[in-house]
Amino acid sequence: MKISAEEVAKVAKLSRLDLSPEKIEQYTGQLDGILAYMDKLSEVDTSKVEPMYSPVDHVSVLRDDVVRKDYAREDILKNAPESDGSFFIVPRIV
Fold first, then answer.
1. How confident is the model over 50-67, as a mean pLDDT?
2. Which site from 59, 74, 77, 82 is most exposed, i.e. has the minimal number of CB atoms within 10 Å?
3. Domain contains 21
C-alpha cells in the first residue's frame, strides 16, 4: 500500500498538527515504509499458528492478596501519640 503526501497532510490536519512540507515528505516516507512492512507480513501463511493474545507468558511477580493479621492492634496503637484503645485520635481539621 502506498501513501501519498496529501493523505499524510490530511491526517496531520485531522490530528491538528501543523506540519511543514519537509516534515510531510519525511512522514510520507516513514509511513510508506511501515505500510510496506505490514503488506509483507500479510503475505505470511499463519493458518497453522494458534492464536494468542501475547507472545510471552505473563507471570505475576506480585504475591497473592491474602488477608492476614501480622500485628496486634495494641502493638500498632503503642506508636500513636494518642488513642482511645481501639483507634488513633487525631486533631480535628475542619
1. 82
2. 59
3. yes
